[in-house]
What does this fold into?
Amino acid sequence: DIYGDTSIHYAVAHNDKSLTEFLINECKVDVNGGDCKRPSALDIASFNQNLELQKLLVNNNGLSRYQINHESRKRKISQDELIRNIENLSITPHKGNQQSVITNAELKAERSSAAVEQVTLNDDEFEKQISEFNSAARDQMKLKNYQEALKYRQHENDLLINHFGYLHPAVARSYYNIAVVYHNKCDYDSAASNYTKAIDIRDQLPLSYKDPDFPNYNTNRALVYATQHQYDKALENFTQALSMRKTYFPIQYDEIQRLEQFIERIEGQRKEL
It folds into this structure.
């Protein structure tokens, strides 16, 4: 439209999952399309706190506009500007060529009955459920009941996104934990996909978040790529992990040495091709 929004922006703004699925699966629309100075479809779903649409978009490579701007080397927009844009995003066609703006508050009042009803937990209830899911997943992993472990990890992921929103270190770690389950199942494509989701979130977080496990996201994705004989991608991820270790966790000598050995081994395998 004249504002640079696309059909998927309208579908997501109105919390219309069926239409969004149709646009993605049948029409093959670009889930990250539209004016780069406007919010992405994922931004809108996150702002509307629609968990179903957030997961649908993420599973189809949907990106936050922050990441799109970063990758295309365009300027980043501020959080305040992003919110203002989202609040005035949805344009509903009326008779003729006239259009009227529906605010986010009005959209929430008109949400479809098919939208997910999200239960708000107090902090104690939330922490208790997260602890239970985490403990159950660990127990199932020890027993190598990976499908059961995956079920608990996915419940944990849903709860974290509902509680914190998408861009949060706990959500990144949750996708990492899901990837680890797939990795152990030898479902390497699903493992790589979830490691990538964890990395995408991590890379959008402020630099003040320095979780010692963050480099492992790249290390494990590199191991998946190495297993699939995608040595260029493996080398790239091992190198990124090593850079993070040296920059933020320089005293972790054993981990740094291990990564250097991985890189040496991958470089040797590339030469043999």
Summary: Residues 50 and 217 are 26 Å apart (CA to CA). The chain has two domains: 7-109, 123-272. The chain is about 65% helix and 0% strand.
